[in-house]
Amino acid sequence: MKNNLLTMKNLALAACTLLCSTLHAATTPFPDRIHENTRTTPYPQEFHQPFINPAPLLVPPGEEGDSVQFMLSQDKTFKDSSTQISKPAVWRMFNPHRILKPGTWHWRFRSVKKGGEKMPWSPTYSFTMDADVPQFVTPPFETFLRNIPQNHARLYCFLDATVEEARKHMRQSPDFERMISEARDALAMDYRTDTAPYKKISLMYKHANYLHTAYMMMQRDVYAEKMVQNVRCLLQTEPDENVLANDFNAGELAYTLACTYETCYSRFSTQERQQIEELLLSVLNRYIPHIIGKEEVHIFDNHFWQFTFRHFLQAALVLHDKYPEARNYLEYSYELWTSRAPASGFNRDGNWHNGTSYFSANAVTLYYIAELFSYLTKTDFLQHPWYRNSGIGEAYSWLPNSSAAGFGDGHEKLNAQPLRIRSAYADYLARKTGDPYAAWYSSLNRRYLDEYETRIYRLASGKERPDNENLPEDAPKAVWFKDSGEMIANSDLNDLSNNLSLSFRSSPFGSGSHTHSNQNAFNLHFRGIPVYRAIGHYMNFADSHNLLSYRNTRAYNTILADSIGQPFTTRAYGNIVRMFNGEHISYALGDASKAYCGISEYPMWEKNFKNAGLEQSPENGFGKTPLKKFRRHIFLLHPDKVLIYDELEADKEVHWDWLLHSRHQFHIENNRLTTVHPEGKFASLAEIFSEQPCKISQTDRYQADPNKAIAVRGEEFYKEWSIDARFSPCKKNRVLTLIQITPEGKKTIPAVRKNSNTFRFGDWTVTAELDADRPASLYIRNTRNNAAFGYGLKEMNAGGKTYRFKKKNASVLHDNIGGIWETKEMDDRPALLTGAK
């Protein structure tokens, strides 16, 4: 997925245009996109707010092979002592590796041609570093390089100081018997009879891990000799081109060779060591041209960050003192991580921006790099804001005994236990930092004990699990993941068997990679079981079902305009602009007004549509729409009710499709939608209100059926039901939806009592302006405890007192917040822009 690259001349012209305006991003509510897929805008500039101090300097792609040199200073003439000038490097980034003082900073860059010719400096860019920007500073690469051990024990050098003592106690570890069992499996496998061992590289990679862990802990030659035997099988055959062409397989090969090379260095002959080195270099040299100059300017290349980054880094680590290209790639890897990681570099909230399910593919890398880099730099990489929030991010986004919050590839998994790798990462975080959310999360199922790649840390680090594995007493009912764009609210995390969990997404990252076209969509779970959630099955990244019925907007609980949804692009973004976390009211406001923006311009998606014989047409849910406003207010009214208030507006009349999905058939009675969930022993009722007439229909058919013949992920092909509440054509619409959940055995769910624009259900009274020609407004009050919410009002009753709004169209909450009854007001929080204004 590549945008058209600017020539240096055009880049300079574009930069000059950008410099003509110094307005802050907040004054431009709807830029073309928040994050560019491939960078076309130098970052940061005056209209950017840095995510971290120091901010990396990033520039668009240039001519292949050219180097880039940066200057950074508080002096616009670049002459005072604050000026920092980088050495020319072939990558398009620069990390100052020092805290930047609050105030204005200036920077520029220039290209240095392959022959050494220095091109003119770019225009000068300026940005402001505020005092409240989170700080996380890393040492320069020279510090990292200087601390790499000189001997051949580098990959797990962070365990050298603890492993000897750990060996004395390993038999008491619950990991010990699993380690022995895995090592036996690896010893029993004989690759010498295999005529194509490269095709077994995934299994050999797993066995290399098994054997290395056992050898490191037991120090028995049998394990090391088996590692050597396996690698010799590879050395005696020609490399398989198909294996090398697969980045995952190439990475598995790189790790298998690198780990065996350094662990068993003296057991190989000089000729064999040379063969291993040449094979490792051939892998690196094959991929380096597609990595350096590319990954630092791409928003997030999921395959690369999942496994490839770690495996190629490990290959470079063992060879860096022998081969200049390995040393150069090692420096690139360090600079790339400290500039663009974790989680894209533009995320501090601890949630995984690329889809909840796909956190698991990144978890081992996140653990390993944090350990290795912390050890070699003597700097705690877990102090990065994303890492510090990742415990609560893991715990809330996929609760124990529940399906995942669910907004990306793999969201539909019915596995009620979060994946073992998620559990292993949480266990690591608990042992390393004592994070209470990670300790609680991993204690509830202990699935981390099945995870083999992190087993060496559990056995050799000497780090024990925290004594207290209870959920923190002050655990919030709702969490706002501001940078990734999700809000997750729960009624009772201390009683997961009766917890109602609401997840809501409106993300500045838009759609692409493993995320879907689902801005302003929600999922609802009760007792860990889906009440309403997205539909479809993930089997193939590019088949018709994936494109039309899985990642497509029509698969989510959101809206369509004239049957058209959101394209697959970072341009199709949303943003959660407000959020309150009260004892009785959890609230978020999502703005998806820019999400309905045509078709995807990315070559990958264009190719996928073409290969599937499809067009990005209105019939398939893609194309231009006149939509100009879609703001969704969503509430969890504790303990068992959900309220949604949608503001919809277009430049011309459209029919609005309000969507809702369930794994159970709906019973439709006028505006009442009832579902019964026997597996969870509960029922749900959704009632839709609007002044516009609508026709409600349901279907159990997909736009494109899944091709069950290609199912390889253990898919469960259950029937799913979709509601389409289609409103008559109009320019403006307001839709109020009230949802109630009742466990089996309780009385039938009572209908909402409506009187004009006032609605009563349970202890709640709601007054909602549904006349789209009048200003939007909402007032919610609990008649039992007097918790209240207001939006678009001039004043409201808050705890028996009149509260006068300070800002027009603000949201106000009166509730028990953090143990104190108080009244809070909030208006929109803009997303932190990283692209063009």
Explain how this protein is built.
With 837 residues, this protein is an alpha+beta fold. Among the domains are: 8-129, Immunoglobulin-like (Sandwich), CATH 2.60.40.10; 509-826, Beta-galactosidase, Chain A, domain 5 (Distorted Sandwich). The chain contains 18 helices and 30 strands. Strands 12, 13, 14, 15, 16, 17, 18, 19, 20 and 21 form a ten-stranded antiparallel beta sheet that branches. Strand 17 (667-669) and strand 18 (672-677) form a beta hairpin. It is globular, with a radius of gyration of 28 Å. The two termini are 22 Å apart.
List keywords for this structure.
HepII_N, Beta-galactosidase, Chain A, domain 5, 837 residues, 26% helix, disordered N terminus, Ig-like_fold
Rg value:
28 Å
CATH architecture of the domain at 509-826: Distorted Sandwich
- Give me the secondary-structure category: alpha+beta
Number of strands: 30
Low-confidence runs of at least 5 consecutive residues: 1-28
Give the DSSP E fraction (strand runs of 2 or more residues). Answer: 15-25%
Mean pLDDT: 94
Instruction: Indicate the CATH topology of the domain at 509-826.
Output: Beta-galactosidase, Chain A, domain 5
Tell me the major beta sheet: 10 strands, antiparallel
In whole angstroms, the N-to-C terminal distance is 22 Å
